[in-house]
Design goal:
The structure holds two protein chains of two kinds.
Chain A: H1 2-49, H2 53-59, H3 63-67, H4 70-77, H5 79-85, H6 92-104, H7 110-157
Helix pairs in contact in A: 1-7, 4-5, 5-6, 6-7
Chain B: H1 9-13, H2 18-30, E1 35-41, E2 44-50, E3 53-56, H3 63-73, H4 82-86, E4 89-91, E5 97-107, E6 110-123, H5 133-140, E7 147-151, H6 157-168, E8 177-181, E9 197-200, H7 204-214, E10 219-222, H8 228-239, E11 244-249, H9 253-256, H10 260-267, E12 273-279, E13 284-290
The chains are: A mainly alpha, B alpha/beta.
Amino acid sequence: MLKLAGAALVFIAASLYGRGMCEKMKRRLAIVTALDDLVCYIGGSIENFRMPLGRIFDDYHNTVLEEIGFLNTLRRDGLAPAVSAIEKELPPEIYDQLCSFAGTIGGGSAPEETKLCDFTKERLRKIGEDMRMQLPQRLKMYRLLPLLAAASVLLLIV
Amino acid sequence: MEKGKDFNEEAALAYLPGRLTEAARKSAALYHGMISEIRLRVGCPMFLSIGGKNISCGISPTADELSMIIRSLCGNSLYCHSETIKEGYICTEGGIRVGVCGRAVTEGGKILSVTDISSVAIRIPHRVPGAADGICRLILEEGFRGAILYSPPGIGKTTALREIAARLGAKPYNIRIAVIDTRFEICGSLGGDVTYDALSGYPRAKGMETAVRTLSPQLILCDEIGSEEDAQAIYTSFGAGVPTVVTAHAGSLEELCVRPFMRTLIDSGAFTYAVGLSRTQSGFTLDINRIGAGETAIC
């Protein structure tokens, strides 16, 4: 009986962990998609309206970025502090890309800024697509994790 | 005429690094005056214009500080100002005009960009309530009259134009005014109780043409005219029954007429008055010349 209860506990723990990891992956993908949208918006506003960054940040709205507090920091402190504040939510390659973008944006002419936005957008889109492609496999793996863990425990203790 | 209290000094000082702000505040306190201009040059002492005097603060900005000031003046969005920087100025959102110069990158005689900015002159706009009352009376005489205001740079033509907009666009006059604010320095510091149509950033001639065609103004205000194209637009506007009040650089009416297009424009009768501005301790004095409506210009 105790063995079964132990296996059940491992199953529940592994389930929760797997679910947490699934949620985290989906959330990361949503954030990357939202950031891609933000960069696209910045590029369009600069190219078409020559709007200053402060006004672009004020005008931009996105539920995902609003929920994680990114937009508040962005409007109050600027892009670099906002990116730093969500470092843990981002894959390292995206974080590095955004840090470089935040350090450069606003310092050049409109064509230069548009090019920078296009480049960053492409990078974010590529990383986002890779994540999107990997997502079903990862989700499957995390869903199988509890079953495998419980089965392993059972096999070990029978 | 006393200077108003709505000076944008604090807004301008906020663009400077802390040590420069502190030095400027100390100098302003020492000379008991309001700052009308801040001049910064890399490696040279910062100068302030207070009450018409140039005062050295004895503290110099570094190249890094000047570059930070430029970024700050541009709201970290240099691309918004790259075109005006090529023409030698930046205008901030609050209507503060900043003259800049550095190293021009040219191709075929055309400036592609300006880099290594080494000098910055921050001109702080201010309201001088009542400064334009005399000019407003002339404009309102027998219907609406056109006028050209002239003076050397830095005397207060733009301030006078701003006051005209503030006076005639508000109660009790509520005149339909179109302001051609090419350099964003007239409307930025006007209060919200003034009603006017602001054509901000429009080239002067295009702005006047647009105003006449689409806004049915009773009066057009335009700052610093200086080309034949501007003169043609003023004449067209005059022909359409819309008088204009404009400003131009000149030390006297004779100097104003040295430029052939200006002489033609004045002779055309588009302006009833040419008003020379000069600064006194307390404000402006006006040198009023009736030049239109059948009278001949003295030039």
